[in-house]
Amino acid sequence: MNADADSTRQSLLKAAYEEIHRYGFQAASLNAILDRTGVTKGALYHHFSSKLQLGYAVLDEHIAVELESLWFEPMQQPGHPIEVLMAAIKQLGDHYECEEITLGCPLNNLAQEMSAIDDGFRQRVDTLYQRWQSSIESLLTRGQQQGSVNTSIDAADTAFFILASLEGCMSMAKNAQSHDELMRCGKGLMNYLNSLRA
Amino acid sequence: MNADADSTRQSLLKAAYEEIHRYGFQAASLNAILDRTGVTKGALYHHFSSKLQLGYAVLDEHIAVELESLWFEPMQQPGHPIEVLMAAIKQLGDHYECEEITLGCPLNNLAQEMSAIDDGFRQRVDTLYQRWQSSIESLLTRGQQQGSVNTSIDAADTAFFILASLEGCMSMAKNAQSHDELMRCGKGLMNYLNSLRA
DNA sequence: TGAGATACATACTGGTTGGTATGTTTGATG
DNA sequence: CATCAAACATACCAACCAGTATGTATCTCA
Prior knowledge:
- The structure is a homodimer.
- The first copy, chain A, is an all-alpha fold.
- The first copy, chain A, is built from nine helices and no strands.
- Chain A has helices at residues 3-23, 30-37, 41-47, 51-72, 81-98, 106-114, 119-146, 155-176, 179-194.
- In chain A, α1 (3-23) crosses α4 (51-72) and α7 (119-146) packs across α8 (155-176).
- The longest helix of chain A is centred in the last third of the chain and has 28 residues, at 119-146.
- At the A-B interface, α6, α7, α8 and α9 of A face α6, α7, α8 and α9 of B.
- Chain A binds a DNA duplex through residues 1-2, 4-5, 8, 29-31, 39-43, 45-47, 50-51.
């Protein structure tokens, strides 16, 4: 694939991501994506064999990459595990504020919409959630070994609950369409995280 | 409206609820709902002026009623607030197990899908969430007055976080398609609730 | 018993959807 | 320079969608 071809592919992915983020996968219109990019239908079907494959590519190549820089990288920071976690959540909240709270977490949106009706989506989302969860889990385990995190908790279960709460907070904020509600929820989450200290 | 007319209306609401629960509102097909019920299109548009109004009716007359019996009634039980809360959550989890975990919480599904693109849905969901939250809040407040709940927490913020976590847990379980994951998440939630005791 | 409203039933429409068939242009390679 | 595949472009299609126009039973009530 030459450079031009790759750039049209990327612009399709970006436009598809935005369209899906706003309207969901099923309601996302290929024609709208084409209008937005100026790409023609022939070009789209040259790069992606179907709407479904385009959706998978958005997950694999766009959302997964964004999650990498927005979450997995901040989690690599040194320091007190609880504080690293809080900082990562805070950063996620800030980014989330910028790009329209009302659109929700792209990953959670797709999970909600598609996991019950398409297994390809479900498995991809599941893989990302598992990586997400284990990144939290290993942070907690490290803290337990260092003596900075309460050893009476189960790291895996707790990590899972933290992730669920985080998604729940973003979900509630999306519906309330209010940053205040997100902050409110964030407060509850921070309280909980503090209760995990040793 | 006579008894026959009301029963066709109810069967439309039920089928619409099921179709929406599985595929979402936008992807729900009126023809599929008609096939499922044996009702004709003329009858449907006699009872509901549009697909949107049908969707609103599903929220107002089906989901709201279900939430009433599944949550608000159990919350009226006497006893230790934290234990009442836990019992209500457990009951919700049991019911949730029966009717296909993979379909998710009907209210949360609609919130996710529609709140960003239709204000009628958003406001209805918001109202239900607010009632849901304040039912938890008043339980916590009662506990604080009785001395059974930690007085250092903010009842409103905490109630909001509990609700968000609950929705998050159901959301994660939906994607994982596993009751084990729901239980895992429930364990985390129970731990958190226990930490709120005085 | 007759008039009018309620409760349907049937057939249809315009618009949109994802997808395809068939072309043309462009760029790499021998 | 010729060749061939990659990278598009245009026009079209059948299926489906929500919604409507128009007709007909049935039920109520004066």
